[in-house]
Write a structure and sequence with these properties.
By secondary structure, the chain is mostly beta strands. Helices cover 13% and strands 45% of the residues.
């Protein structure tokens, strides 16, 4: 009878485990869909705006579009990133209590597609926040792809009286699914209708 030594048995188990792991990795890679390189849009600079504790909400609409001069019958996926810079100006300059502000992005398909946790404002110091929302999947490039989003700004309504000055930008990134190359003339844009 041929018995393996404990060290031989241990090595065999070690290599068997490696083989199982390698097989699992190959299976995972084989089932992932190919995607083209990312293509970024222009950066939309939104018109500056103000919100106050008496009018604490504002919404701006943006539209992301993807197109190609020779569009294949392939799906498009991607993200929209919105960046906000906010400055808090209390009505009473001696006031030290500071409110919070929240930035969120939504569309009809995904009402709360992207939301940033509320951020506390500071007197005299701008804060910057960023949030991201995903472009709804399933749009076929050969039919034209368009995603409308609402960008919302919300100030704590029960805060001390004051104003927030807002500056914001939006930029999208998209890619084509099930192909490793970017289609000819593939472009992504963000605009405010």
């Amino acid at each position: 009878m041929n018995r393996m030594s404990p060290s031989s048995s241990s090595r065999l188990r070690h290599w068997a485990a490696r083989l199982v792991l390698l097989t699992a990795c190959i299976g995972t890679v084989a089932t992932e869909q190919a995607t083209s390189d990312d293509v970024s849009s222009n950066e939309l600079v939104g018109a500056p705006l103000r919100i106050t504790t008496t009018a604490p909400r504002a919404t701006r609409r943006v539209v992301v579009r993807a197109s190609s001069t020779k569009p294949p019958d392939k799906s498009v996926e991607g993200e929209l990133r919105v960046r906000l810079t906010a400055r808090w100006i209390p009505d009473d300059p001696a006031q030290t209590t500071t409110p919070w502000i929240q930035l969120h992005v939504s569309n009809l398909e995904v009402p709360s597609a992207g939301a940033q946790a509320p951020a506390v404002l500071e007197v005299g110091a701008p804060i910057t926040r960023e949030t991201e929302a995903f472009l709804q999947q399933g749009c076929k490039l050969d039919t034209g792809c368009e995603w409308p989003f609402d960008v919302g700004f919300e100030l704590q309504s029960d805060a001390v009286a004051g104003t927030v000055e807002l500056e914001w930008t939006a930029q999208a990134t998209a890619r084509v699914v099930d192909t490793s190359s970017v289609p000819k003339g593939f472009t992504v844009s963000v605009s405010a209708p």
